[in-house]
């Protein structure tokens, strides 16, 4: 689209063309663009809260339009853009021609002098003759909720001296007409000449000597609104923004940020951070390799993570919407700064009342894995692009393979069904654009361009948690979409069964009321991977391949026990945060001895049992001399989640507790580890999965605060049927009269004793009439897999109304 912009007053004073940040507010977007208006708004409104924003100034839209008028460019731009619209000129030729015109044009004398004066004043305020500044473009229509111009124009870092500043300003003006910016405006329907360019000039933070990155005030993949997600890398923040490094990631739970004594950090992941961007002595910046120590170290300390999170939450409250924020740490003064803030533009457009789910129906060994962006699954032809000059050859509907992407890749990304990159994290260019386009991406795979075969059919899945996978071939998957609308809220509490902490945030929109069963087996088996006793007694692990893998996993950990406790703590905390403020019932580990033996180093510590299903499992394992030390590590993780992170909604639950005497021994052991039932509001539940739990329900009720019926084990033991036997599968039925009699009996006994009673099996969703039976008997809660929740909520509400 083209038009003639209104011609500004040619006699306007240069003083009208420069505005210090502190004189700007959010109402100034038409004058200085969203980026610069936001910087001014934060300095004016949020500095009293302790949020630091580097000083600077902005040129106005009038200055840009006067620049065009001074050089008599308006008419020429209209002609060139009209030729593009009618097809007589290409995008590449049009953009190049316009940029040449703008770069060759001279700044009007009033603007030239105004820029020099403002730059000198910025230096005087910092007691520096020639301060290093960042010069950034800010389009006057950018960062609207329905469109983001971020990344469409250029930024220049470590600009030193008046002449360098003037040159950078001309380059910013020209960058309004990069090919990607022209293409984006045409796609979104913006008039090219109604969009003006403001230049922001901001004192550089010496993050080249420390670190920088970005933060979102929600989870950018699931839209979960109660966390801050921070990415961090060494050096200037451009490498994080452009996705050229795999950064650290920290996740913080917002509701507990102001809770005294709480340190609500849910996740700390060390990124590889292969390079960092630093100053060039002569001006500008360059990327250099990081040291081994830098790659293994976290960029931020806990206190800094929490400070940035509080600032992010405060900025979000001020703007009243989720925000995408860039931050930097100054290596000279050691202080943190906010250098940009803009509205988050992807989740802001997503309908809150619709839940779309994808389920992989087939399995295969993944070709590569990386950070999952989005939650969908796509099958398509993999197409590798090594040379950006060949992007025009990328076919629509293919899966793009690239080392990394930048804004110039926009047209190809718009045609892609999915994206795979070697480099980058959640805030890389590929991740951000994929979210905006609504396509899945697996970023930071390391070797995706090498290991995913060009021209072959592959399946890309982001539906399995925070890790995305690329599988060979076309795997079967299912897609479903649920409009939540006005879901009823039944009296019976409907809760979730969740095992994978990485997937926990995905289900926040579901009409559930907490987590009724959080299984630790996933965290121990898939994240920790090492048998806990191999960490307590590493000298007892025999030499060999398993010990070598253990040593690699423990690289950077001084204390092997801390490896187990820290990873388990973060996994539990993420699950509990997803449920908060509702309960998160966390079942302590319930591997059998043969399953524990498959963990790294596990064979050295596990007995051989003829029938592990009825052997050393659950409560009997915890107080056994064979496992007690390992159970105390689980207790320490639970204690930290409640006492240190502050998530007191966690309720530990003991599985396979055969007798009240066993219950006493386990509760005594837990109390010795800082988990005393009744202290600081701690409740402890027990699984009801053995006939003795039903028969002696009153005795168990004296020792625990709630029961959760495990229908699989209870059915197995009531009917005497091995639940894993294919030959006896026809006899395994939760609907059997004997099983239902036991369940009805324990519900009645628990209600009489005044303690909670729920069920955490799939029978209410899988077995016809089972939910109706439970409602009729008066069960308090049903905990289900996420894909069953909507259906069961509706059915239970209807039953209660009948």
What's this, in brief?
It is built from 28 helices and 30 strands.
The end-to-end distance, rounded to whole angstroms, is 60 Å
For the report, how would you describe the main beta sheet? 8 strands, parallel, barrel
Strand composition percent: 15-25%
Derived from helix and strand composition plus strand pairing, the structural class reads alpha/beta
At the fourth level of CATH, the homologous superfamily of the largest domain is: Phosphoenolpyruvate-binding domains
- Tell me the strand order in the biggest sheet: 23-24-25-26-27-28-29-30
Number of strands: 30
Multimerization state: single chain
- Mean pLDDT comes to 90
The domain count comes to 4
Overall geometric form: elongated
Quick one: CATH class of the largest domain?
A: Alpha Beta
* CATH fold title of the largest domain: TIM Barrel
CATH architecture verdict of the largest domain: Alpha-Beta Barrel
Structure, explained:
The chain is elongated, with a radius of gyration of 30 Å. Residues 1-12 and 142-151 have low confidence and may be disordered. The N and C termini lie far apart (60 Å). It is an alpha/beta fold and 802 residues long. The strands form six sheets. It has an eight-stranded parallel barrel with strand order 23-24-25-26-27-28-29-30, surrounded by five helices. It has a seven-stranded mixed beta barrel with strand order 15-19-18-17-16-20-21. It has 28 helices and 30 strands.
């Amino acid at each position: 689209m083209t038009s003639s912009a209104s011609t500004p007053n040619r006699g306007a004073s240069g003083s009208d063309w420069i505005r210090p940040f502190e004189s700007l507010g959010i109402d100034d977007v038409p004058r200085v663009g969203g980026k610069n208006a936001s910087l001014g708004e934060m300095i004016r409104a949020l500095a009293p809260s302790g949020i630091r924003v580097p000083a600077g100034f902005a040129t106005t839209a009038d200055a840009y339009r006067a620049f065009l008028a001074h050089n008599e460019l308006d008419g020429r731009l209209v002609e060139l853009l009209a030729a593009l619209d009618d097809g007589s000129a290409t995008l590449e030729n049009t953009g190049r021609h316009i940029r040449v015109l703008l770069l060759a044009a001279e700044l009007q004398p009033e603007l030239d002098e105004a820029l020099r004066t403002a730059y000198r004043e910025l230096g005087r305020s910092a007691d520096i003759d020639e301060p290093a500044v960042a010069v950034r473009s800010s389009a006057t229509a950018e960062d609207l909720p329905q469109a983001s111009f971020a990344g469409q124009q250029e930024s220049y870092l470590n600009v030193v001296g008046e002449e360098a500043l003037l040159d950078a300003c001309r380059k910013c003006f020209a960058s309004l007409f990069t090919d990607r910016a022209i293409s984006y405006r045409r796609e979104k329907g913006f008039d090219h000449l109604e969009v003006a360019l403001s230049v922001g000039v901001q004192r550089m933070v010496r993050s080249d000597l420390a670190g920088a990155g970005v933060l979102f005030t929600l989870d950018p993949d699931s839209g979960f609104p109660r966390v801050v997600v921070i990415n961090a890398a060494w050096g200037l923040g451009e490498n994080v923004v452009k996705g050229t490094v795999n950064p650290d990631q920290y996740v913080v739970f917002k509701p507990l940020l102001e809770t005294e004594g709480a340190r609500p950090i849910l996740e700390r992941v060390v990124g590889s951070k292969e390079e960092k961007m630093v100053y060039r002595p002569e001006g500008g910046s360059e990327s250099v390799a990081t040291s081994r120590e830098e790659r293994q170290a976290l960029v931020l300390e806990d206190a800094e993570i929490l400070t940035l999170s509080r600032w992010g939450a405060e900025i979000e409250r001020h703007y009243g919407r989720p925000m995408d924020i860039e931050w930097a740490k100054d290596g000279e003064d050691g202080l943190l700064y906010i250098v940009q803030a803009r509205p988050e533009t992807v989740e802001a457009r997503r309908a809150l009342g619709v839940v779309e789910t994808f389920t992989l129906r087939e399995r295969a060994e993944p070709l590569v894995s990386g950070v999952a962006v989005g939650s969908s699954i796509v099958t398509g032809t993999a197409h590798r692009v090594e040379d950006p000059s060949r992007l025009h050859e990328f076919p629509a509907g293919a899966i793009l393979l690239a080392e990394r992407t930048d804004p110039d890749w926009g047209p190809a990304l718009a045609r892609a069904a999915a994206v795979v990159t070697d480099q980058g994290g959640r805030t890389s260019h590929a991740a951000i654009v994929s979210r905006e386009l609504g396509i899945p991406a697996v970023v930071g795979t390391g070797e995706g361009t090498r290991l995913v075969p060009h021209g072959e059919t592959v399946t890309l899945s982001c539906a399995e948690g925070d890790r995305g996978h690329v599988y060979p071939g076309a795997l079967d998957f299912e897609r479903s979409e649920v409009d939540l609308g006005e879901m009823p809220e039944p009296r019976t509490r409907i809760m979730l069964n969740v095992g994978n902490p990485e997937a926990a945030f995905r289900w926040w929109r579901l009409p559930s009321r907490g987590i009724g069963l959080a299984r630790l087996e996933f965290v121990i088996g898939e994240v920790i991977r090492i048998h806990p006793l191999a960490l307590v007694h590493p000298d007892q692990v025999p030499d060999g391949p398993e010990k070598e893998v253990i040593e690699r996993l423990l690289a950077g950990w001084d204390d092997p026990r801390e490896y187990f406790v820290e990873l388990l703590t973060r996994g539990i905390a993420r699950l509990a945060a997803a449920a908060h403020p509702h309960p998160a019932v966390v079942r302590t580990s319930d591997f059998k001895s043969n399953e524990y033996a498959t963990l790294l180093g596990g064979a050295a510590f596990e007995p051989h049992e003829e029938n592990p299903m009825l052997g050393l499992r659950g409560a009997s394992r915890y107080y056994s001399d064979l496992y007690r030390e390992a159970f105390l590590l689980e207790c320490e993780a639970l204690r930290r989640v409640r006492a240190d992170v502050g998530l007191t909604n966690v309720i530990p639950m003991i599985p396979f507790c055969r007798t009240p005497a066993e219950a006493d021994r386990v509760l005594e052991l837990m109390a010795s580890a800082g988990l005393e039932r009744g202290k600081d509001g701690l409740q402890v539940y027990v699984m009801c999965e053995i006939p003795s739990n039903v028969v002696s329900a009153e005795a168990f009720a004296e020792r625990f605060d709630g029961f959760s019926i495990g229908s699989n084990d209870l059915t197995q033991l009531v009917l005497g049927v091995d639940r894993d036997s294919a030959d006896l599968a026809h006899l395994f039925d939760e609907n059997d009269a004997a099983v239902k009699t036991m369940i009805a009996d324990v519900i009645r006994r628990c209600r009489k004793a005044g303690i909670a009673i729920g069920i955490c099996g799939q029978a209410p969703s899988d077995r016809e009439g089972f939910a109706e039976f439970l409602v009729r008997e008066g069960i308090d809660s049903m905990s289900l897999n996420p894909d069953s929740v909507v259906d069961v909520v509706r059915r239970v509400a209807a039953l209660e109304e009948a």
